Amino acid sequence: MLRPMNDADLADIAGIDRCCYAFPWTLGNFSDSLLAGHRCCVYEENGRIFAYSVMMAVVDEVHLLNMTVAPERQGLGYGAALLRRLVACSRQSHFASMWLEVRESNAAAQALYRSAGFVRAGVRKNYYPASNGREDALLMVLDLQHAA
Ligand SMILES: CC(C)(COP(=O)(O)OP(=O)(O)OC[C@H]1O[C@@H](n2cnc3c(N)ncnc32)[C@H](O)[C@@H]1OP(=O)(O)O)[C@@H](O)C(=O)NCCC(=O)NCCS
Fold first, then answer.
1. In 68-100, which positions are buried (b, 16+ CB within 10 angstroms) versus exposed (e)?
2. Which pTM was predicted?
């Protein structure tokens, strides 16, 4: 079931984020996203969260700030399903485009975004912290008005 994120979810979500990223979001980052009114949702089954997303609306654009599937559920189609739902909702809400940044080294996420129709729009140099300094982000965009 896909539902809106709430405060009671944050400890579990921050725990999953710590398992998935070398530089995870803190519980405070997720809490700030809820307070800011970002579009935050979770996939849950039998009361257990296994995927979540955070999107920020900026005028007619929506920015995907975080999309994560728990390690034990990765590679089973949940990320693609979540992204399809986010794209469909954003299109229904009449956003013109969806934007995201992804690490240059994150081939799996890039493949997912490309298969959903995202295209490369640029590079943000040294955008992410990395174990050996900084890493570039690819900036990707999906045209929500014209893409099928
Ligand atoms: C990236 C992520 C969201 C993908 O979700 P997922 O549920 O694991 O992916 P899916 O099973 O839905 O696969 C969808 C597509 O993603 C790509 N993909 C997923 N895992 C992959 C892997 N290990 N290697 C290469 N491509 C992969 C493929 O294109 C796949 O399509 P296909 O099955 O037709 O080949 C998830 O693995 C994750 O949360 N990873 C850790 C955090 C992260 O990197 N988040 C994105 C930050 S920008």
1. bbbeebeeeebbeebbeebbeebbeeebebbbb
2. 0.96
